[in-house]
Every structure is written in structure tokens, then in C-alpha cells.
Amino acid sequence: MISEKEAHAKILSAVVPLPATRVSLGDALDRFAATDLFATIPLPPFDNSAMDGYAVVAGSAGRNARLKIVGEQPAGPSKNLSLSATEETEREGDFVLIRAAQIQVGDFVRKAGADLAIGQQILNRGDRLLPARLGLLASQGIESVSVGTRARVAIVTTGDELAGPRKQPRVGEIFDSNGVMLDALAAKTGAEVTMQRHSPDNFDTLCTTLRDAVQHDALIISGGVSVGEHDLVREALRKIGAEIDLWRVAVKPGKPFLFGKRDRCLIFGLPGNPVSAFVTFLTFVRPALLQMMGATNAALTLPRASACLTHEVTGDETRPHYFRGELSGTRFTVIGPQESHALFGLARSNALLRVPPGEKLSAGSEVEVLLIR
Questions:
Q1: Which of 44, 129, 243, 316 gives the lowest tally of CB atoms within 10 Å of its CB?
Q2: Strand, coil or helix: what is 193?
Q3: pTM score > 0.90 for this model?
Q4: What is the pLDDT of residues 272-328, one digit of tens each?
């Protein structure tokens, strides 16, 4: 069993970013830039007025000056009128009466390049293309951008105990919740789920399913990675020629986590309990998929927030423990039982609190939580 930090480093070191692809700005939202980009147009591109008003020669526009209106420049193509505006005026037919005590040259004028200069870097490779960044690219006349390719992901759930959504569960069976949840988590990460399949606890069937699944960029398996007699995933992966790089990580929930690869396909074996699957996806799978799709550095981590703990929390003796709970304002409260099967409590949570091994946190402690919505 290896540490969470070692597992994280080992996984990310195995990730090879996918080739870049070019997409229109309309299809680029939440993708990751594949190249650095620099401004070719200053912002503003020319001197322009900061508000509606009258352009005047400052030296001839003292208080009570009465100036004749000689033209009008609406927004749009230039009529070659210089613009400088003041609202301290009064219209008198074809004249304007200045009420301002003093007018300076350049008042209320936005100077060309004051916001962005030519040659200034506007995008770093690996930046997530958020709405404002797309607007900035559009301001440069850019219509398409080079981004990381979306990862093609296969999801395989395992176990005789799982019933499909259109079947009536028999005694001892439960509905498959992990398939839908992992599909949603992968999609939220920006990946494209192109295969989702269930395999019973039959070795030959599982091998066939896994052979199809490893044709993708990444394979996420739910269940079958522990030490029980019917946990067949490790043996099946070896049968189809996959290499298992790590198995069992010191983290709670989620210890029986597996990572390996076959050719270019990264393989993640998640525990069958839904909370364990959820936590290990966010901890290990999400950063790997993001890096595969071109993300770098801070984009790989979940957003964080400072909070005040509302009650005492005691972590596991030997493993970092992720507690599920609600962040309300600046107060964090653990919700419901923290067992790895407790899906209802997880569904009501919006943050995770990571408690290091052997630590006890008292009520009122200042903590940092991971935002999971």
C-alpha cells in the first residue's frame, strides 16, 4: 500500500497529453489552450469616449462657454471627430453651454492600448477557456483556437449484485448507481464517455469487456478490485496484457484503488462502494484526465475554501480521511454517516474535508475544504 501523494505522482507521471485540435470559439468553452497566445490588437484599439457627451477643445471650454455644435459621432465607423466628453453641459439649440469649472485635455477619453498592448500575452498553454477568456480572444478577431483533445473514456461496472435500471432487483441485488455517477463525473471533467458497460462476475465476460474498453484513452472500472473471491478485475487485466502499476492506496474511503495501463490506455480501478468511487475519482482520476486534455498546474486541483468547523472531527489512525459535508457561508458541517456506502449523505454534500492520519479537529477549528460542486 502506497501513500496518497506517491499514488498521485505515479499516475500523473504516466499521463501523456493528447494531440491538440483546433475548434471554433463556440466549441472551446472549458477546453484547455494548447499554445500560448499574444495580443495583435490593442484594447481599446483606438482612443474613444468613455461616455456619451460633447467633444470640446479644453482651452476654449471654461465655465459658461457657449460653443456651437458642428457634428455628431455615434458609435460605429469614425467620422474623424476627436472625442472627449463631459456631462456637465446644457443644450441650447445648436449650441452647448459648458457648466464644468475646469476641463483637462484627455478627460473621459479611453486611450488606445490602455487595457491591453500589442504583444502582451493573453493566454498561457494549459489555461481553461472560460467565458471572459473567450471574449478576450474574440476581441482579437480570433475565430478558432488550438485546444487539447477531449479524452475518450470507457466506464465498466462489475458485479453480480447489480441490477440494470429496467429490471426489478431480486433479493440481494441493488441498482447500479456508480455507472451513472461516474459517467457524470467524467463528463463534468470535460471527457467524452464513449462506452459504458456492465460485466457480471464472470471471468471470460469481463476479459471480453475489458478488451473492448482499453481501446479508449482511459478506462474507469467500478468494483472488483478488492481481495474477495469474486474480485476478478486484477486477474482479468493481466489476462488482456495490461500492466498494474499500483494497487491499494492509504486513503479513506478508497483503499482498494488500482492504476495501470495497456498501451496508451490509462486504467483506473475504483472501489465498488459509491462514496469510495466518488472520492477516488476526484482524487486520482480527475487530475489525470485533465492533464491528458491539456490542463496544467492549478487546473488539476479542486477549488478550495477556508471554513470554520462546526463540530469535532476525528480522522482515521493510519490514513488521510475525506469527510463529506456542507459548506454554508464560512461554516463546514459533516453530513450523515461517513461509511463508504452512504450515498444519501454524499448527495447532500458540497465539500470534502481532508483530515490527516491520527488528527482530531475541535469545533471552531479553521480548516480548508475542497469544493465538489
A1: 243
A2: strand
A3: no
A4: 999 999 999 999 999 999 999 999 887 899 999 999 999 999 999 999 999 999 999
